[in-house]
Design goal:
With 124 residues, the protein is mostly helical. It has helices spanning 2-6, 17-37, 50-64, 80-92; strands spanning 71-75, 95-99.
Amino acid sequence: MLSILTDVWGNASSQHAVGQQAKGTLAAARATLARALGCKPAELIFASGATEANHLAVCGLHAAAPEGRHRGVFSAIEHAAHLKLARSLAARCWRKQRIPLEPGLNLSSISGVRNHESHDPQGQ
């Protein structure tokens, strides 16, 4: 990892030599990780951080959901970025369900989530 930070620092989308070196290094890392995970390199997406990765995952699940099955379940303590995403999706076509926060793990608060249908256009 240290060599990546010091030697291969170029933009992998650039045409210059340093960019092309970074592109090759990124491709090799992607292939190694794909082998370890048992998937194809093209199936891997590298994100810049947790918020971007979570948005990619939620939006990907939303896009892949069968018609009429667009629903998200969020807890009351989600990161503000996730709640903003939920409000945005709910305003367009998503049924959003928020489960309450209770001290400790209380499965009764989420037991009805699977079959519960709710729509909250205000994202509350």
